[in-house]
Amino acid sequence: LRVLDGAVGVFCAVGGVEPQSETVWRQASKYKVPRIGFVNKMDRAGADFLNCVGQMEERLKANPVPLQLPIGAEADFVGIIDLISMKANIYDEKSVNGEKFDVVDIPEHCKELADEYRGKLIEAAADIDDAIMEKFLAGEKVSKEEVTVAVRKGALDLKITPILCGAAFKNKGVQPLLDAVITFLP
Asked: Mind giving me the DSSP string for 118-136?
């Protein structure tokens, strides 16, 4: 871990934060390695994204900031809400490797939760960037670019841990994860 520029911590949506994850996380903290969290296996029975995020806060003493929310869970896991763009990726079930998805507006039944977590994302960005804080307090809209820059700075300074989700076995959420590695890590 000493030589890494960045890392992706992969957590099981069912099992949450496991003891080995805690050990590796502590080592990454010791060597000041910026990281992203990925909550995997959202398509498995018992998957709970928000519970896993809560365990990161409780057990790892991390400051997890979800950049995505799942649409559904277990067998009903159909897509991901991007909290930066406030759009949804709905995966084509006929696509074998999850490479085909449609970018659509957030489904009505998910809007309230998405708005809540978008607010939390903006608050986290405001803690990092004073310009966003001023816009937030004035009730002005914060752009995707401003949020992205603030999240990157927060991740590199180890102030926040961006959290994404998906189901790697079916490649759901893997493309946004790879994009996040490029965008938010050194």
From this structure: HHHHHHHHHHH-HHHHHHH
> How does pLDDT run across 58-95, given as a tens digit for each residue?
999 999 999 999 999 888 999 999 999 999 999 987 77
Radius of gyration for the alpha carbons in the chain, expressed in angstroms and rounded = 16
Residue with tokens 């938010």: 184
- Measured torsion, CA atoms of residues 115, 35, 98, 51, in degrees rounded to the nearest 10: -50
Strand ranges across the sheet with 64-66: 7-12, 35-40, 161-165, 64-66
Tens-place pLDDT, residues 101-141: 889 999 999 999 999 999 999 999 999 999 999 998 898 99
How many C-beta atoms surround the C-beta of residue 155 within 10 A?
23
Question: Which of 165, 14, 177, 170 has the alpha carbon at shortest distance from 80?
Answer: 165
Query: What residues pair up with 87 in beta bridges, in sequence order?
Result: 82
pLDDT in tens, 86-95: 999 999 877 7
Exposure of 184 by Cβ count < 10 A (0-12 exposed, 13-18 middle, 19+ buried)?
Answer: buried
